[in-house]
């Protein structure tokens, strides 16, 4: 039996055998209550999960890549029909393949603006060129990260390189910035070359043998690669595995044009500074290496609207691809009607592309109206045609 004069045993805090309540004070912090299903969500936009944000974009990339493969296969069969002397099953020429002729599209756009007349040769090249520029002017450089098959392959190579080598590399700014200027120099060369051509010279070029089969000549270029070109493509493939989006970031003049057009876009990646927790995940996720975590809105022509930063943000509505809020006072309440989520962006891209193609069909300027006999003569002697 205990002596009644002994001090009472120390009470244990929370039943813990080693921590007396009259010793050092111990504070317990209650875990935050999980929100029940019926509870109201916090104010703001319901942010899609990171997986959903990128899953939609990847699905659009895959669909457009498969569409390009289908068009390429159909175009190859059309060319082979004429290369075999017009024997076998005739497959109609797919006008959509002219999306691979951006310089022709630029030339035909110049011709249209100068004369007010739609081009007769490769009209689809112009309509697709205008559609892609318009998409970029409305939805940033989403063409590059959502539609362009080269951009898709470049992204796949980067991911493969990260798995193979365990990491990828970012060039230091003293090298990165000058290299980024290369694509603008290439764009400037083509713009000056086309800009100095008269409408009459453009029309003459398009109706010359080389212009009529410019798409066939492009196919021949890839079918008969020289050893130096193969080595260059191999080097470019390796660099694309080591440096994210190497071709798109440093060398693609088409991407440079889309970047300039994207400066007109009312939609931008916008950061809510009040909600930002300064984790830096958005900047690390950006394939263009932009300091998203330090910007209120991303204006840069290098932003391709891939929404990788939005997917990486851990805060609900911390980052959004959106229009500017109408006023600072009602910004929170206005976000919902002014945000372009992944599904909205995909729908807008499809609407612009389908709408432009529909206009081309209705106007009767989607296909080049040339007889088969002319193509038979031109394609069987394609090696003889030069510009």
TrEMBL record:
Cell membrane as UniProt keyword = yes
User: InterPro entries of this UniProt entry?
Assistant: 4Fe4S_Fe-S-bd, 4Fe4S_Fe_S_CS, NosR_regulator
| Compositionally biased residues, Pro residues | 1-10
What is the protein name given in its UniProt record?
Putative electron transport protein YccM
> What organism is the protein native to?
mine drainage metagenome
What keywords were assigned to this record?
Answer: Cell membrane, Membrane, Transmembrane, Transmembrane helix
- Record's keyword annotation contains Transmembrane: yes
GO cellular-component terms in the record?
plasma membrane
Give start-end ranges for the coiled-coil region(s). Answer: none
User: Where does it primarily localize?
Assistant: membrane
This protein's encoding gene:
yccM_17
**Cellular location of this protein?**
Cell membrane
Q: Which residues cross the membrane?
A: 59-79, 121-139, 184-205, 225-248, 339-362
Q: Which SUPFAM superfamilies match?
A: 4Fe-4S ferredoxins
Q: Which PANTHER family match?
A: ELECTRON TRANSPORT PROTEIN (PTHR30224), ELECTRON TRANSPORT PROTEIN YCCM-RELATED (PTHR30224:SF4)
Which residue intervals define the domain 4Fe-4S ferredoxin-type in the entry? 267-296, 297-324
């Amino acid at each position: 039996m205990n002596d009644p004069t002994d001090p009472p045993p120390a009470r244990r805090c929370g039943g813990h055998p080693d921590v007396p309540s009259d010793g050092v004070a111990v504070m317990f912090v209650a875990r935050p209550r999980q929100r029940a299903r019926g509870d109201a969500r916090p104010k703001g936009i319901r942010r899609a999960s990171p997986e959903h944000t990128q899953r939609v974009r990847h699905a659009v990339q895959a669909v457009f890549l498969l569409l390009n493969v289908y068009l390429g296969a159909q175009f190859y069969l059309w060319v082979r029909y004429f290369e075999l002397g017009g024997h076998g099953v005739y497959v109609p020429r797919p006008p959509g393949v002219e999306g691979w002729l951006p310089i022709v599209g630029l030339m035909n756009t110049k011709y249209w603006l100068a004369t007010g007349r739609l081009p007769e040769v490769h009209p689809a090249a112009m309509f697709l060129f205008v559609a892609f520029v318009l998409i970029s002017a409305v939805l940033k450089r989403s063409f590059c990260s959502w539609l362009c098959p080269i951009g898709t392959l470049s992204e796949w190579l980067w991911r493969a390189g990260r798995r193979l080598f365990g990491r990828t590399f970012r060039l230091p700014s003293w090298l990165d910035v000058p290299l980024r200027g290369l694509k603008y120099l290439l764009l400037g060369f083509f713009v000056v070359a086309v800009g100095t051509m008269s409408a009459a010279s453009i029309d003459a070029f398009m109706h010359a043998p080389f212009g009529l089969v410019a798409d066939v000549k492009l196919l021949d270029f890839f079918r008969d690669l020289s050893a130096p070109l193969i080595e260059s493509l191999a080097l470019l493939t390796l660099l694309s595995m080591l440096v994210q989006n190497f071709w798109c970031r440093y060398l693609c003049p088409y991407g440079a044009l889309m970047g300039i057009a994207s400066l007109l876009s009312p939609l931008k990646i916008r950061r809510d500074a009040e909600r930002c927790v300064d984790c830096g995940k958005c900047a690390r996720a950006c394939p263009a290496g932009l300091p998203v975590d330090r910007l209120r809105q991303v204006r840069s022509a290098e932003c391709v609207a891939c929404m990788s930063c939005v997917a990486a943000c851990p805060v609900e509505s911390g980052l959004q691809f959106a229009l500017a809020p109408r006023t600072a006072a009602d910004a929170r309440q206005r976000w919902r009607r002014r945000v372009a989520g992944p599904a909205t962006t995909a729908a807008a891209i499809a609407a612009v592309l389908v709408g432009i193609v529909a206009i081309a069909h209705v106007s009767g300027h989607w296909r080049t109206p040339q007889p088969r006999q002319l193509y038979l003569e031109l394609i069987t002697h394609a090696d003889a045609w030069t510009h």
